[in-house]
């Protein structure tokens, strides 16, 4: 391994069997790295999109749960604006205390959270694989990775964004 930036071949790329030596093999490796980077950006955009959907579903679920645990401050008044949530504690319920309480952490939903963990594992695998390619110090690989990530971001960067801001 050459410990400085170079354009020559002979470096192992990810696997022992993938060692491009000719100019054509290096070009093929660079094309594969660009495609790999575009795929990584697509997975990132897909995850952002799923996070938005999971957040909306969690909010709906939380709203449904709180609407079923409602008691009225006055039995005569059945106006929903007078309703407060029941609390399991034995302390007296005050409407100001209950109305000001908001859930800071979304509920655990196995279907969402297991999928989120899988997405994170796949993204980590992609990131470490790209890091190993950069660690070869082959400038063609590094340029290909930067270009591939840029192309992927141009193609998929807008997906999974709320109102133009980051999620």
TrEMBL record:
It is a multi-pass membrane protein. InterPro entries: Cop_transporter. Keywords: Copper, Copper transport, Ion transport, Membrane, Transmembrane, Transmembrane helix, Transport. This is Copper transport protein. GO terms for molecular function: copper ion transmembrane transporter activity. It is found in: Membrane. It comes from the Eukaryota. Its main location: membrane. The keyword Transmembrane applies. The chain crosses the membrane at residues 25-43, 125-151. GO terms for cellular component: plasma membrane. Belongs to the copper transporter (Ctr) (TC 1.A.56) family. SLC31A subfamily.
């Amino acid at each position: 391994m050459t410990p400085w930036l170079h354009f020559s071949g002979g470096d192992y790329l990810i696997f022992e069997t993938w060692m491009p030596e000719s100019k054509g093999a290096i070009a093929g490796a660079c094309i594969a790295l660009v495609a790999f980077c575009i795929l990584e950006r697509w997975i990132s955009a897909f995850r952002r999109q799923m996070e938005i959907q999971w957040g909306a579903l969690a909010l709906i679920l939380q709203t449904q749960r709180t609407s079923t645990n409602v008691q009225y401050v006055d039995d005569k008044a059945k106006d929903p604006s007078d309703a407060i949530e029941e609390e399991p504690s034995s302390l007296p319920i005050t409407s100001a205390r209950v109305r000001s309480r908001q859930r800071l952490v979304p509920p655990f939903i196995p279907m969402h959270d297991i999928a989120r963990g899988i997405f994170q594992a796949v993204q980590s695998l992609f990131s470490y694989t790209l890091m190993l390619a950069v660690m070869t110090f082959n400038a063609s690989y590094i340029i290909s990775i930067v270009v591939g990530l840029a192309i992927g971001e141009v193609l998929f960067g807008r997906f999974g964004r709320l109102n133009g801001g980051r999620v």
